[in-house]
Design a protein that fits this description.
SinI-like; transferase activity; transferase; five-stranded antiparallel beta sheet; 2 domains; Immunoglobulin-like; Intimin-like protein SinH; mainly beta; signal; four-stranded antiparallel beta sheet
Length: about 300
């Protein structure tokens, strides 16, 4: 009987020892902060410069123009394998008088489909950017998933001077493209889109008259028919210069015929011009503005 009691005590002691050993191995550490990856990075495909993009254009003139396309291209890298969302973080601007205005339409953003692939943003310069000194673009490296999800922001104040390290474009100012049209109207006709007011710059029948006031209007001629149709947007050029052109042989009378070639009219740099009497003309001809043609140079 005593042996049996001793055996039970031994079994109980071994059991307690086993429980103590098991509880030690079941313990765990504290919890770490969340796992993070690496930030996404954009680079310029032409030279592999990091935090940089390439800029190219199809422009053929001396400067960028309305209707020209500017293409931003980047190579997307993310060491964690997160997908590209940088294409949704591109903003284009046009710059006038030192002020940046966001461009809200006329672009196509395409992200990279693979890590290590390229993404693009293609902007077609809108009519409202006419006369702007530059086109600006801001893009931020961004991934679809991951932490951190956002990389470096790349700001290029002028696409001509790509300070990020990639290629650049032609300079501004943005010149009128093929779709930008200007016309000369009599102020009293109250010209507007679809009004049908006579455009004196496109008529050989009507003539501007001394003492009358004329206005210059520019618009985005969407259908390229040379007429300010209903729905076509009026534009405000940065610079306007009224000019006299041609010979005054129909008005010279007994005075010497004068010939002018797009001669700027002194002080006529707004959208309004009142044809002066002879003494107030800057033509230098005795009959003043009479006999010459009017035109407007604008940008």
């Amino acid at each position: 009987m005593k042996v049996n009691v001793m055996l039970k005590k031994l079994v109980l002691a071994l059991g307690l020892a086993g429980l103590t050993s098991s509880s030690v191995w079941a313990a765990s550490t504290g919890t770490t902060s969340s796992v993070q990856g690496r930030i996404p990075v954009l680079s310029a495909p032409t030279n592999s410069a990091q935090n940089a993009v390439d800029l190219t254009t199809n422009a053929t003139g001396a400067t960028l123009a309305v209707g020209d396309a500017i293409t931003l291209t980047y190579r997307y890298n993310d060491t964690d394998g997160d997908g590209d969302a940088s294409n949704t973080h591109v903003t284009w601007y046009y710059v006038k008088s030192g002020s940046d205005t966001p461009i809200t339409s006329g672009f196509i953003h395409t992200g990279s489909t693979t890590v290590g692939g390229t993404g693009t943003s293609v902007l077609t310069i809108p009519a409202v950017a006419m006369g702007a000194s530059a086109i600006k673009v801001v893009v931020q490296a961004y991934s679809v998933t991951g932490d951190p999800i956002a990389g470096q922001t790349i700001t290029i104040a002028d696409t001509r001077d790509n300070t990020s390290g990639g290629s650049g474009t032609l300079p501004g100012p943005i010149s009128p493209g093929a779709s930008i049209t200007g016309g000369i109207f009599r102020q009293s006709d109250t010209p507007s889109a679809g009004s049908g007011a006579t455009d004196y710059s496109r008529s050989s029948v009507v003539h501007p008259v001394v003492g009358e006031t004329y206005v210059f209007r520019a618009w985005d001629d969407a259908n390229n028919n040379g007429v300010w149709d209903t729905g076509e947007i009026r534009l405000t050029p940065t610079t306007i210069q009224w000019q006299l052109d041609g010979t005054n042989s129909t008005a010279n009378g007994s005075s010497t015929v004068a010939t002018l070639s797009h001669q700027a009219i002194v002080g006529a740099t707004t959208d309004t011009y009142t044809i002066p009497a002879n003494s107030g003309s800057s033509s230098g001809a005795i009959p003043g503005d009479q006999g010459f043609n009017l035109n407007v140079d604008f940008n």
